[in-house]
Amino acid sequence: MYTQNILNAIYANHLYEYCIIDQNFNVIEHSDKVFNYYSKDALKETENSIFDLLPELFGMEVQLQAILDGVQTSLVIPHIFKEPDYYVNILIHAGEKEHQKNISHSKHNPQNKKLILLLENVTEMTNIQQRVIQIANEKALLLQELAEKNKQLQIFNEHMQELVDEEIKKNLEKQKMVELQSRHSQMGEIIGMITHQWKQPLNAINIIANVLKLKYHKGTLNSNVFDSKIDTLLKQTDYMNETVDVFQRFFKPSKEKVEFNLFKTIHIILNLLEHEYALKHIHLVLKGDQAISVYGYPNEYNQVILAILNNAKDAFLTKPHDTMHIGISIENKDGKSLVTVTDNAGGISEDIIDNIFDLYMTTKSQGSGLGLNIAKSVIELSMQGKLSVENVENGAKFSIVL
C-alpha cells in the first residue's frame, strides 16, 4: 500500500530520473529532469536511440537484449560522470509485459517487453568519497613527508655538534685573521709615525756630527764643546730608543687584565701621533681627570684610541680646513670612566653611521673596514664596556665607557 508513496518520495527528491526503452532500444518515455544528464537538444521528435543519449551503453546490446529476453534480470553501471558535474549510477531493469490479444506469441517474445533505465544521482556521495580518498592520500603523503623530515632531522642532530664545532673553528680563525689584518694595518701606520718622529732627531744628530767634524778640522774643538755636543747626541738617541720601546709595547698583546691610568696610557699614543698630525695641521688636545684608572688591557685600549683618531684624521684629509681639531676628554660619570674623542671633521653620513662598526665597513677607497670593528670588539667583548658614536655640531663624537 506504500509503494506509490515511496515512489513519490524518491521522485520528489530527484534522486532518480528514468527512461522507458522499447525493444529497439529507443526512448519512448522519460522523466522531465532527465535533461540534467544529457542535452535536451539530443532528443529528436521520433526514435531517440538510447545509445545516442547515453554513449556509455555502446557495445552493451547483448546484455540489454538478455534483459529483454528474461535471461538477465538487471544491469548496473556505476559512477558514470555526466557533464557538467554529475555522477550517476545507471540501473537497467526489465519492464512489465504488454497484454497482447494475440496469445500465440512466445512467452519470451521481446516485443512484449520494455526496459526501465534509472539514472541514480550519486554526485554528493561520490564527492564525499573522493574527498575522503583525497584527505587520506594527503594524510599519507604528509605522514611520509614527516617521516622523511624526522629522518633528516635525526641525521642533522647526529652531526650537529660536529657542524657547530667546525663553524666555531672557522669563525675563530676568521676573527684571528681579521685581528691580524687590523694589527698589520695599524703597525704600518705606527711605523710611518715613527719615521716622522725620527726625522727630527736624525737631523739633529746629522747637524751635530757635521759641527764636530768642522770644529775638529779647524782645531777649535775643545772638551767643553765636545762634551756638550755628545750629551745632545745621547739625548736624541735616548728619545729614539724610547720611541722604539713604545712601539714594541704598543703591539705586544696584553696577556691579562691590569689596572691602568687612562690619561697616561692615552698620552703615550699621542706622543707617537703628535708630530705627524702637526705636519697635517691637525691639533690634538688631551684634557680631563688625570687620576682615573680602569681595569682591562692597556695596549689594546690604545689601539682603540688610535683607530678612532685615524678615522678622524682620514675625514680631515678628505675635507681639510683651517681649524682642524681633535679633543680627547676623560671624566668619571655615574661611577664609570667616560672617554670622548670629538672632532670637527664634518661628521659621519647618516646613511652609514648605524653601520660604522660593521666588519669591512669603510668609506675610504683604500680602507679595510677593520679598525673600528676591532675597536668595538675590544671594548665590548674583551673589556665589557661600551663604544658608541654620534654626530655633533661640525663633527663626530666617539664615547668609550668602562
List the helices and strands and how they pair.
Blueprint: H1 3-12, E1 16-21, E2 26-30, E3 48-49, H2 50-53, H3 61-68, E4 74-82, E5 86-94, E6 115-121, H4 123-218, H5 223-250, E7 258-261, H6 262-279, E8 283-288, E9 293-296, H7 298-318, E10 325-333, E11 336-343, H8 371-382, E12 386-392, E13 395-401
Parallel strand pairs: 8-10
Antiparallel strand pairs: 1-2, 1-6, 2-3, 4-5, 5-6, 7-9, 10-11, 11-13, 12-13
Describe this structure in words.
By secondary structure, the chain is an alpha+beta fold. Among the domains are: 3-121, PAS domain (Beta-Lactamase, 2-Layer Sandwich); 254-401, Histidine kinase-like ATPase, C-terminal domain (Heat Shock Protein 90, 2-Layer Sandwich), CATH 3.30.565. The protein has eight helices and 13 strands. A six-stranded antiparallel sheet has the order 3-2-1-6-5-4, sandwiched between helices. The chain has a five-stranded mixed sheet with strand order 8-10-11-13-12. A hairpin with a 2-residue loop joins strand 12 and strand 13. The protein is rod-shaped and about 160 Å long. Residues 101-112 and 365-370 have low confidence and may be disordered.
